[in-house]
Write a structure and sequence with these properties.
By secondary structure, the protein is an all-alpha fold. It has four helices and no strands. It has one domain. The relative contact order is 0.14.
Length: 88
């Protein structure tokens, strides 16, 4: 990621475009969370049901994550990657 400072992030967060996008995503997430799970049910097709449930859960996860980014939480991008190995 290029070097973005805190002031740039704050200006971006306060932008009317960012605020409007946040509000749109918040409405989508609210609607998604209000959707009953039975809407994912495909009678006699458990694989389709499973895929629909996972899809709904992933949409909610991604909307929530994106809302955090729009509010200025860029910690995901700033964390160092962990390759699973300890330095020796």
């Amino acid at each position: 990621m290029s070097k973005v400072n805190e002031q740039q992030i704050q200006e971006w967060v306060e932008s009317p475009v960012t605020i409007d996008l946040f509000n749109e995503i918040e409405q989508e997430l609210t609607a998604l969370n209000a959707m009953p799970m039975k809407g994912c049910l495909h009678y006699g097709e458990p694989i389709k049901t499973h895929e629909a449930l996972i899809g709904q859960d992933m949409k909610a996860f991604l909307f929530d994550w994106f809302m955090q980014v729009l509010k200025g939480d860029w910690s995901y991008f700033l964390e160092e990657e962990d390759d699973g190995y300890e330095d020796e």
